[in-house]
Amino acid sequence: MIRGSKFGLTGGIARCIVVVALVAACSDDNALDPARECFGPLALTVVSGTPPQFTWTAPCAVARLAVFEVPSVGASQLAWDVRSDPPRILSPVRYGERPGGATEAQAPAALRPGGTYQVRVYNAAEVAVGSASFVP
Fold first, then answer.
1. Would you tell me how many other CB atoms lie within 10 Å of the CB of residue 35?
2. Is 108 exposed, middle or buried, given 0-12, 13-18 or 19+ CB atoms closer than 10 A?
3. 84, 30, 63, 65: which is closest to 55 by C-alpha?
């Protein structure tokens, strides 16, 4: 005979299930509950620092974040590229720190002080939904 609360074993199991559900709900693992995808346009902001941080205020995820060096002459050069399928990259993202759930398609290059760079974020269809220029 099991003694204890008036709910017995069943009540204890129910309490355990509630605790497990609460822990899962509080988790920040984007793999369990992906945010909705950003379709843009997004207001993208660069917070200065070493390394810089990229933010957008919409509560949504992007599929790709890419940083390009913009030379005074010639084509832009890819400096860093992270991707996620499905879109899981959430704001904020710090340069060179791969976001959870993302893969690094291009390792981060050292940013040149005084160089001009552009960060772009893309949705799953590879459409740029936000961009911003910055100088480290």
1. 17
2. middle
3. 65
Are 125 and 35 within 8 A, CB to CB?
no
DSSP, collapsed to helix, strand or coil, labels residue 69 as strand
Give pLDDT tens digits for 7-39: 454 554 444 333 333 333 333 443 435 679 998
Residue 15 backbone dihedrals phi, psi, to 5 degrees: -65, -40
* CA pseudo-torsion sign 78, 40, 83, 112: positive
How far the first Cα of the chain sits from its last, in Å, is: 71
Q: Which residues does residue 83 pair with via DSSP β-bridges, in sequence order? A: 64, 103
pTM: 0.74
Q: Which two tokens stand for residue 9?
A: 């074993």
